[in-house]
């Protein structure tokens, strides 16, 4: 690639499919005013770290553990309380139809129950059973045990940074 190529004439495409003319002399694309130029690097490091840690956390789950989808449903009901299938699906960026089988299996296994809404009897709410709470707790304990051991290699300051980062990641996950 020739650095003297005119914009859009074979110089390659820029970030996110934009042509290089969207870049300034400083090498960053035209962005929101006031954006810290390090945000792209922070986003990249955060994405890589969460992806790798998520992969490792899934690997630490015991054999025969519930699927990630099932744990996601149980986790949502644990955090938010009784919810419609639509609300559970939206929280996991899925369509309600995509969870039909998962919800049926969780209900069959006694981990969730369906009940009519008190305010609107036409509405069906999903709720966590005691057995569902126990299954979710067992899954979380297995992964927390590995993570607790892994934290031993970090300093107190690094552990505190991770505690704060975890809270911030929870907040980011709720962003529209």
Account of the protein in words:
The protein has a two-stranded antiparallel sheet with strand order 1-2. The protein has a domain at 65-173: Winged helix-like DNA-binding domain superfamily/Winged helix DNA-binding domain (Arc Repressor Mutant, subunit A, Orthogonal Bundle), CATH 1.10.10.10. It is 51% helix and 6% strand. It is built from 6 helices and 2 strands, in the order ααααββαα. By secondary structure, it is mostly helical. The protein has helices at 39-59, 68-80, 85-91, 100-108, 130-151, 156-173; strands at residues 112-116, 124-128. The longest helix is centred in the C-terminal third of the chain and has 22 residues, at 130-151. The protein is globular. The relative contact order is 0.08. Strand 1 and strand 2 form a beta hairpin.
Keywords:
176 residues; Arc Repressor Mutant, subunit A; two-stranded antiparallel sheet; 6 helices; globular; disordered N terminus
Topology:
Layout lengths: L38 H21 L8 H13 L4 H7 L8 H9 L3 E5 L7 E5 L1 H22 L4 H18 L3
Helix pairs in contact: 2-5
Count of extended strands: 2
Spatial strand sequence of the major β-sheet: 1-2
Give the fraction of residues assigned to helices.
Answer: 40-55%
CATH topology of the domain at 65-173: Arc Repressor Mutant, subunit A
Strand-pairing-aware structural class: mainly alpha
CATH class descriptor name of the domain at 65-173: Mainly Alpha
What oligomeric state do the depicted chains represent?
single chain
**Radius of gyration of CA atoms, rounded to a whole number:** 22 Å
CATH superfamily of the domain at 65-173: Winged helix-like DNA-binding domain superfamily/Winged helix DNA-binding domain
């Amino acid at each position: 690639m020739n650095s003297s190529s005119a914009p859009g004439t074979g110089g390659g495409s820029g970030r996110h499919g934009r042509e290089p003319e969207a870049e300034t002399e400083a090498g960053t694309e035209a962005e929101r005013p006031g954006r810290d130029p390090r945000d792209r690097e922070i986003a990249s490091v955060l994405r890589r770290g969460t992806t790798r840690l998520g992969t490792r956390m899934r690997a630490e789950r015991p054999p025969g553990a519930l699927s990630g989808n099932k744990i996601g449903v149980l986790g949502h009901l644990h955090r938010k309380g009784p919810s419609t299938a639509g609300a559970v699906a939206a929280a996991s960026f899925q369509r309600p139809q995509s969870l039909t089988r998962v919800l049926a299996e969780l209900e069959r296994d006694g981990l969730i129950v369906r009940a009519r809404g008190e305010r609107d009897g036409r509405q069906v709410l999903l709720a966590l059973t005691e057995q569902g709470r126990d299954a979710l707790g067992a899954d979380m304990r297995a992964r927390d045990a590995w993570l607790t051991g892994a934290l031993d290699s970090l300093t107190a300051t690094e552990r505190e940074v991770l505690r704060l980062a975890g809270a911030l990641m929870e907040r980011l996950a709720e962003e529209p």
